[in-house]
Amino acid sequence: MKWNKASKQFQTSRRGTSKAHEYYFVTTITAGGEGWLTGYKGFGKQIVMKSAGTFKTAQEAREYCEKVDNQIMIIEEAI
Known about the structure:
Order of helices and strands: EEEEH
Strand content: 15-25%
Strand order of the largest sheet: 1-2-3-4
Helix content: 10-25%
Number of helices: 1
Structural class: alpha+beta
């Protein structure tokens, strides 16, 4: 998965580089950057992955998103 240029508060993966969602994102919890949350774009909106908890760095949060995307099972309808 490739990521867009890193910013201090919000980062997204490049569209088309993940297999399960349109894109993933990592964002700071507050403007002061007390930690990072993860999420993805799905169902027409951004969804925070609350069950993932928080991360100390953006790199840890991005690595978590990549791990989730690699391990996810995609079920498609058989015709």
